[in-house]
Design goal:
Chain lengths: ~525, ~325
Amino acid sequence: MRKGRFGQDSTKGIVAKIVLLGLVDALAVYVLMMLFLSQSWGALGVSSAVVLAINWIYLRKGGLPAKYLAPGVLFLLVFQVFVVLFSGYIAFTNYGDGHNSTKDDAIAAIQLTAQKRVPDSPAYKAAVLTKGNDFYLLFTDPDGKATIGSTGTPLKEVPDAGTDSAGKANSVDGYQTLTFQEIVANQQEILAITVPVSDNPADGTLRTADGSNAYEFKPALTYDAAADTFTDTDTGAVYRDNGKGAFADGNGETLTTGWKIDVGMENFARAFTDPSLRGPLLGVILWTFTFAVTSVALTFALGLFLAVTFNREDLRGKKVYRILMILPYAFPAFLSGLVWSGILNPQFGWLNQTLLGGATIGWLTDPLLAKVSVLVVNLWLGFPYMFLVCTGALQSLPTELDEAARMDGAGPWRVFRSIKLPLLLVSIAPLLISSFAFNFNNFNVIYMLTGGGPRFADTDRDIGATDILITLVYKVAFGQGTGRDYGLASALAIIIFIIVATVSAISFKQTKALEDVNS
Amino acid sequence: MNGSTARTRTTAAPAAGSTVTAGGTAEGATDVDQLRLLHRRRTFGAWFKDKGWRHLVGIAVTIFAVFPLLYVLSAAFNSTGTLVGSNALFSKLDLGNFTALFNDPSRPFGRWFVNTMVVGVVTSAATVFLGAMAAYAFSRMRFKGRRIGLLSLLLLQMFPQLLAVVAIFLLLSGISEVIPALGLGSQLGLIMVYLGGALGVNTYLMYGFFNTVPQSLDEAAKIDGASHVQIFFGIILRLVTPILAVVGLLAFIGISSEFVIASVVLTDPDSQTLAVGLYSFVAQQRSENWGVFAAGAVLAAVPVMALFLFLQRYIVSGLTQGSVKG
């Protein structure tokens, strides 16, 4: 199709190109250097390839389409395509709280966290010091020797520490000593300081409970590197690598800190076999479909009804109605759920308190009513869009058809049902499908209105009657209370992917058929 | 090509409508008087059957549509502040909630507002630009993989980014170990994530519109020695400004409401957006903070709604174009 040739680039254009490319390359060099320093060789390789590709695209002659497509496609590949593939990978691991690093990290962490006070160990005097934003503990051992250290910084002797009259070391050059008030104000941080006695985690740590006395803590579990086992110093129980990314004793009791391993299909299997998950999950899947289909049907029905009702040139006040009715569509979606949650609040909400005179109907706490409420709120959010779209589609229908049908003696209802509706559906059907896909993942309305609740009684997990798959994914991955389980969350996300892909493939085929039938 | 048929179809409708009104006004004044008389003679029943019920529907739906907005407006100006206190609509009007809103250091509403504007404006501007560049390439150039490219964009937009929120979180936490400025907790990182969705539906919409700009304009410019950049910025972008505005506005509205990814990426209250921040107001105790939340909600909603209503005509035409285009 390209007939003529494009003209030469102007000097201004060339300069702009050089400057922009220079900026990008400068940033790229910085990124590559940081990657080199952090020794992430895989990322370094990929990034270098990307940088080379960008420079090749923009410096060579020709290849014009690539020059226009490259920036958008780059973001698309990283933050849409790659993250999906990455989700696919995470779904096959046990990544999550307690399983977020390598085995070596896990061993060190177990030694650090599973600490208990060494019985009859001497009490150290302690003072709290700061340097920059970090807190340090200054210890005076029973012999009067002063040592300083912090979390991650093992003890170091400070012979020149200043001492008070009782011989307790309380100041070191270059550090600021905290007053009692300051200690109280920073209690949380100070309690969290664990000072390793030496570089070897097995030697134990020093901690303070009050900022003035410190005690020695030793790992309650000792690690035997040769046998790859942990032994409880009290009970003598031996914990072995159980092949599932954790140390377990003979009874299957595991240590809380584990490491990330590939678990194959286990997340998927767990989703459909674990009794605390299977029942609720099936309920959630069913409700997700019900919610999405009903939402589309309700919004479309009301939108179409309104479009037909107000599709009259000579109706007074039509414009005013229209503006007022599309207001919900203009209102930010995340706020709508929250506002409605106030109106529908069973205890204090307007609907129960004012309109129904102090009723206690559980609009958001009864499983069935909560579902109805979610649908009503989503109808409120969605009907203006359908109204606008249906109005547009109705007005673009040729008027001759209408007249011809009337000539043949068809009544208004007949004209609508047999002529307008089929024609309308051809142009609206793709929108209904994308509306379905959107509602299938309509996180905001559910999460803001009910948070997925009321919770199912038959599980201890945070899953409720109005949860849809995407809110479940979010709660499993980032929810409070129960630990984060990225592996399971990604597995659920992959399930959504498959469902959405299947549904849209089928329905797009159907709409093609619809179009063929009508044309 | 799809786009051009869509245009003619939708423009045909208002034209048909305007001939009706033109016919009406063309009639003489006496005819109008007679018509009025006719109207008066018509019974109430006939009027109701023809139009009255439409007004009833209109009023009922309007109440349904507007009531929650009035409710939140009333709660915002009622400094009683609790859910129960907000139930008596417009019983009290003062600005107590607004002063409380701006004087809570642990919940910096002003910062959230600015953050939302910055993230929204930067992202939507970049979205429009990246989408327009891609649409230009698809519309004006013929290259290997063009068809596949368009189809994959259509396919990819079926899968919203929030599905991969776990992977996005882990990717950004990996990035923040190397370059903290682009990782977790950074708005720049969030913007980059959002730009992953910049192509997709936007490109497709703009592609249709770019196709309606006649190729002959490009050819004429080429003969005059214009470069591809000059044609892109000087001709195409100028002619499709309305659709750029629509795409930008829809992107802005979408991003300012986005909660899932923003809540995961922006952890520090100072860097959060309105969606994340306002949720934190009522996440724990929905009842106590209600008045302040309502005040924040009103302030958050006003700019978006004003923009929406102001550009309503363009958005509606953009939506219906999209619908008819298929």
